[in-house]
Amino acid sequence: MDVLIHLFVGLHIIGIAALLGGFFTQMKAMGRGDARFVPAMLHGALTMLVTGAILVGLNQADDHHVNSIKIGIKLALLIVILGLVYVKRDDEKIDKSLFGLVGLFTTANVFIAVLWT
Fold first, then answer.
1. Which 8-state DSSP code applies to residue 115?
2. What are phi and psi of 31, to 5 degrees?
3. What is the Cα–Cα distance from 41 to 47, expressed in whole angstroms?
4. What confidence score (pLDDT) does residue 103 get?
5. Using the 8-state DSSP alphabet, how is residue 92 labeled?
6. 19, 23, 54, 67: which has the fewest C-beta neighbours closer than 10 Å?
7. What are the strands, taking DSSP E only, across 2-110?
């Protein structure tokens, strides 16, 4: 079971990398006001959602303690991220504040995962 959990942790990290990588590639455009949500950001957020749900299930099945409050906060942030990226994915220009919010929430999600023990 540990191998399976570690496999999905790796896939979850790949999802985070896709979402943050897409954000970072658009930061220069954000400064000019031309930022847009690239497909990697949507795919990364979806990967995070699916692998995160699987990880919760696998950890519960393996009788590991799952902090429901932590997972709930991370899920709420991810749903906001996913909603913004999905709804605005076809827009040519995204408002700086919305684009920055996605980067902020993604970074917050990473720090919640790492620091909240």
1. H
2. -60, -35
3. 10
4. 96
5. S
6. 67
7. none
Please tell me the distance from the alpha carbon of residue 65 to that of residue 46, in angstroms, as a whole number.
Answer: 24
109: amino acid identity, one letter: N
Give me the pLDDT at residue 33, please. Answer: 87
Q: How far apart are CA 14 and CA 69, in angstroms?
A: 24
∠ CA 20-26-30 to the nearest 5 degrees? 120
Please tell me what DSSP assigns to residue 86: H
Distance CA 105, CA 74 (A): 9
Sequence-distant (6+) residues with CB within 8 A of 22 are 37, 38, 39, 40, 41, 44
Burial class (CB in 10 A: 0-12, 13-18, 19+), 93: middle
Position 46 pLDDT exceeds 90: yes
CA distances from 111 to 58, 67, 70, 114, 116 (A): 22, 15, 11, 5, 8
For residue 56, give the amino acid letter.
V
User: How far is the CA of 58 from the CAs of 53, 65, 70, 96, in angstroms?
Assistant: 9, 11, 16, 38
Q: Rounded CA gap, 85 and 31, in Å?
A: 18
